[in-house]
């Protein structure tokens, strides 16, 4: 015997009545496990989202946050001024007076430096291919990078570097390391930095190209992680700091009596001639070839 239509509709009606009366469809809970890390002196915002229960929600905070951060209306906002780890409690209460309290941990860390992301052949190759290097992550004013190419031989004549800065490059065929020191005229937010043709020694699958790099932040200071990466000092009268000086003063003019900073040849202007002076006496930090000779080198200027 078929049940009357009103009996079939009864559970739906009761559920609707329960919702109208504010009965929770599911238990009150936090949907956030732990807040993502905050980074020193960088803007931060995280919301302690709740789910279930009966809206609206009200939040309460118990504990201490790192200096520069504050809790308000279920959110932590601000700019942390100190590193460390904070443990605190957040309570969420719904309109039905149900409450849930959880302990959270927030870490404040040094900002991580940018990283290279490479475009490489998706399959094994035996022919020359174009290697594209991009930067992503935080803004940087420049870097010292050493790429370990192994059996891959670079064709330096094909190198195309961004025109947003000055660079020096050198390849040591004995160690198979390509060194690239580059300083941007303005902080670089990300994108392609260079492309170069590489020639495999034999058919092979290139899964990655190992590298070591020290990055400057947007203000020209080393990222803390870069400070930990020690480069061995090479020989030469000029260093990476001189390349930074050239990029910051590129195109500036003065006089021979009062030359601008970065005017290495004292002709009253910072230009390609000064970059050539720098190249001739440059100290390749972290570069330890077996012999002084047998190296290819190049320098880059705006195009």
If you average the pLDDT, what whole number results? 89
Strand order, sheet with most strands: 17-12-15-14-18
Main sheet summary? 5 strands, antiparallel
Radius of gyration: 29 Å
CATH topology of the largest domain: Immunoglobulin-like
> Could you tell me how far the N terminus lies from the C terminus, measured between alpha carbons in angstroms?
87 Å
Q: What are the segments in which pLDDT stays under 50 over at least 5 consecutive residues?
A: 7-22, 287-295
Helicity level: 10-25%
Order of helices and strands: HEEEEEEEEEEEEEEEEEHHHE
What portion of residues belong to β-strands? Answer: 35-45%
Per DSSP, the total helix count is 4
What is the SS-derived class? Answer: mainly beta
User: Which term fits the overall shape?
Assistant: elongated
Q: From the structure provided, what is the oligomeric state, counting identical versus distinct chains?
A: single chain
CATH architecture of the largest domain: Sandwich
Number of domains: 2
Please give the CATH class of the largest domain: Mainly Beta
Number of strands: 18
């Amino acid at each position: 015997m078929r049940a009357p239509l009103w009996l079939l509709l009864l559970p739906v009606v009761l559920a609707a009545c329960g919702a109208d009366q504010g009965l929770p469809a599911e238990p009150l809970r936090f949907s956030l496990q732990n807040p993502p890390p905050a980074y020193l002196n960088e803007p931060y915002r995280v919301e302690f989202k709740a789910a279930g229960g009966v809206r609206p929600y009200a939040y309460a905070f118990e504990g201490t946050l790192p200096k520069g951060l504050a809790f308000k209306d279920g959110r932590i906002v601000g700019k942390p001024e100190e590193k460390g780890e904070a443990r605190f409690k957040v309570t969420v209460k719904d309109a039905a007076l149900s409450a849930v309290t959880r302990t959270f941990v927030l870490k404040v860390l040094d900002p991580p430096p940018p990283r290279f992301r490479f475009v490489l052949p998706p399959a094994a190759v035996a022919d020359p291919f174009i290697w594209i290097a991009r930067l992503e992550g935080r803004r940087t004013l420049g870097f010292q990078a050493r790429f370990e190419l192994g059996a891959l031989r670079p064709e330096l004549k094909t190198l195309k570097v961004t025109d947003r800065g000055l660079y020096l490059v050198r390849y040591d065929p004995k160690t198979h390391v390509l060194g690239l020191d580059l300083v941007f005229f303005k902080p670089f937010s990300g994108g392609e930095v260079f492309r170069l043709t590489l020639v495999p020694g034999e058919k092979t699958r290139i899964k990655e190209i190992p590298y070591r790099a020290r990055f400057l932040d947007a203000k020209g200071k080393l990222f803390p992680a870069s400070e930990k990466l020690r480069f061995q000092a090479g020989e030469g009268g000029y260093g990476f700091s001189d390349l930074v000086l050239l990029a910051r003063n590129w195109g500036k003019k003065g006089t021979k009596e009062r030359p601008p900073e970065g005017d290495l040849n004292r002709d009253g202007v910072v230009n390609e001639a000064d970059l050539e002076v720098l190249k001739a006496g440059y100290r390749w930090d972290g570069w330890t070839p077996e012999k002084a000779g047998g190296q290819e080198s190049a320098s880059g200027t705006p195009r």
